[in-house]
Amino acid sequence: MLLGADGLIAPLKFWKVQSIGNHFPLIQTVDCPDVNLSELAIKMCKHHFGVGGDGLLTMERNSDGVVLRMFNPDGTEDFCGNGIRCAAEWAIQQGWVSGEFTLIHGGKAIACKEVDGDISTVLGTASYDPKDVPTNIQGEIFDEIVFAGRIDDVSVVLNGSALSTGSTHLILPTGSLPDDAGFRKISEQLELDSRFPERTSVIWSVREDEALRIRIWERGVGETLGCGTGSSAAAVDWMRRRGFGGKIEVKNPGGSVWVHAEAWNREITLSGIATVIFQGEWKDKSELDLTSVESKLGERV
To answer: Quick one: CATH architecture of 144-266?
Structure first.
């Protein structure tokens, strides 16, 4: 084993994991002591030049138990519902846990269990409190106008709700999901809106009978195929609007998850499939001359 740049011991063992298309490289922190995990996430999650992923999952066992951290592709640390299920499935396969168990994530003890191939996790309760979301305005944002402007010469007004299910989400219930251009322009603008000092993910939500279909813009990532905390937030917001809870299927672009709560302000259980795709070794490519690569690509055109 050779000591690489930034203290990274190369090659670094990693696993690629996914849940409903939300995909991550996963590493053990014991394999990379003294490494800046934010910088590692930026490198490993980069498509084409890295492993590729919607975030980096890091796992370790210490006196607190089994601990999961997640870093977005821009290096920011976040709470991740699908990441929890992926980490739980990996930990089961590694023999770290079995039956009903707990993962520590974002300072929270997350109860987990495997049922008929699905991973079920208890995420806690949702909050619209401005301090928890967080927002810098007075009072909660629930079914209020959150966007008013013109997109490609068309006037657009959108109502929405801001809440946290461990991570910050702005839910936009609409009659139909947006086209690509509108989705990107509006979602990116709302992610960076000054009302959200830590930015926000944006979840577009459409009702389909007793299910929800969503399109996802994750802060620090962009569009993704799946989001566990976003699915939970969309379901909870729908529960609050209709006045009662239950079990709701949320159809992500990458597949379905199921959100259960007795009421919108009660404990949320999120369940769905998670898989370990493959195992590999990461070799630090920090000295790769990207200018030279781009030049060679240009010569081929």
So the answer is: Roll (3.10)
